Amino acid sequence: MDGAALARLQTLADAGNARAACILSAQATKCNFLPGVVRDSITQLSAGVALHHERGSIPSPEMLRALEHSRTSASALARECAGAPAMPPDAAWRYLLQSALLGYEPAMLLFSQWPPVDFGEPNTSVDAIIAYLRYSGSLTEALAQRGDLNAITSLTWEYGHHGPNVLQALGLRALPADPTRALMYAYVREGVMLRREAERPGSTAAYGQAHAAVERVLPAVDEAGRQWARQMADQMLATFTPDALRPSAPASEQAEEPTLWQQLEDICRE
Questions:
Q1: Reported pTM
Q2: I want to staple 112 with a disulfide (CB 3.0 to 4.6 A). Which of 31, 91, 136, 237 is the partner?
Q3: E strand or H helix at 20, and its extent?
Q4: Which residues lie below 8 Å from residue 100, measured CB to CB, with a gap of 6+?
Q5: Are residue 110 and residue 153 in the same domain, yes or no?
Q6: What is the sign, positive or negative, of the torsion defined by CA atoms of 153, 154, 158, 164?
Q7: Domains in the chain: how many in total?
Q8: Which are the contacts of 171, defined by CB distance < 8 A and separation ≥ 6?
Q9: Domain limits at 58?
Q10: In angstroms, rounded to a whole number, what is the distance separating the alpha carbons of residues 31 and 39?
Q11: Contact partners, residue 51, CB within 8 Å, separation at least 6
Q12: How far is residue 74's CA from residue 34's CA, in Å, rounded to a whole number?
């Protein structure tokens, strides 16, 4: 992206255009944030390979593939970002948050689940971590109430304090433990998945078993909590539009899988 295109996007974003802010974030993620992440990955993986060699052992194929992938990504980023206009170091997450707070669903999803923040380096990411702790929970709730299955699944993890957590390195969670609310979202997740599976079997395979989250959370909730969770889940499911309960379109076959930064920009351009 050249300087003129970037300036146009910045003008639009400053005027309140959420889509432009999201695309700006994708550009900043690509050329400001990801190069450092990839360099760290190469350093760590190279050290791991070297340690295997010192011990006379063989690195796993997965480790070698990850190292090669990181090196390929580093070369591609260096090539595509050569001559890219300078942007502030915090541009990636600030533009994404700006877009999310304007209600742009792609940005809400990206900020709440895949924020361009190095949580492993809290001393250089304090403002970003504070923003994530402040906003990610409410953004995820807003998406879940619109029927977004990724957000619904995330809330079963967050309120249940299990599963993936980008704040794990800091010993933090974006939401407080609440088994009853976790069960409510587990019931919602189950309901959405069963409806989608009824329309197109296999459409939710990537999410695992529909009943798994309910079975995991149920023992931690008493009978009154179970009744409340079931009632609230049924009410939420009744508010979803048909699109929320319809299976996603099958992914189109591509000759080559897009890079992470291409995927981010594609999401922002939806």
A1: 0.85
A2: 136
A3: helix 18-28
A4: 107, 108, 110, 111, 112, 135, 139
A5: no
A6: positive
A7: 2
A8: none
A9: 3-116
A10: 13
A11: none
A12: 9
Cα–Cα distance, 45 to 64 (Å, whole number):
8
Report how far residue 176's alpha carbon sits from residue 255's, in angstroms, rounded to the nearest whole number: 43
Burial of 57 (0-12, 13-18, 19+ CB in 10 A): exposed
Q: Do 147 and 74 sit in the same domain of this protein?
A: no
- Residues 210, 146 share a domain: yes
Encode 113-152: b = buried (16+ Cβ within 10 Å), e = exposed: bebbbbbeeeeebeebbebbeebbbebbbbbbebbbbebb
pLDDT tens-digit map of 91-142: 999 999 999 999 999 999 999 988 898 887 777 788 999 999 999 999 999 9
Residue 254 has pLDDT above 60, yes or no: no
- The region that residue 247 occupies, defined by phi over 0 for left and psi between -120 and 50 for alpha, beta otherwise, is beta
Q: Where does the pLDDT of residue 3 fall: very low under 50, low under 70, confident under 90, or very high at 90 and above?
A: confident
Looking at the structure, tell me whether residues 67 and 103 fall in a common domain. Answer: yes
Quick check: is 8 in a domain?
yes
Same domain? For 172 and 88 the reply is no
Residue 151 lies in a domain: yes
Residue type for position 80 = E
Single-letter amino acid, residue 121: E
Judged on CB neighbours under 10 Å (0-12, 13-18, 19+), 10 is middle
Spatial distance between the Cα atoms of 203 and 194, rounded to a whole number of angstroms:
10
Task: State how far the Cα of 175 lies from the Cα of 125, in Å rounded to an integer.
Answer: 19
Q: Is 153 exposed, middle or buried (0-12, 13-18, 19+ CB in 10 A)?
A: buried
Rounded to whole angstroms, what are the CA distances from 89 to 118, 144, 186, 257, 261?
A: 12, 31, 38, 28, 17
> Does 47 fall in a domain?
yes
C-alpha span between 152 and 145 (Å, rounded): 8
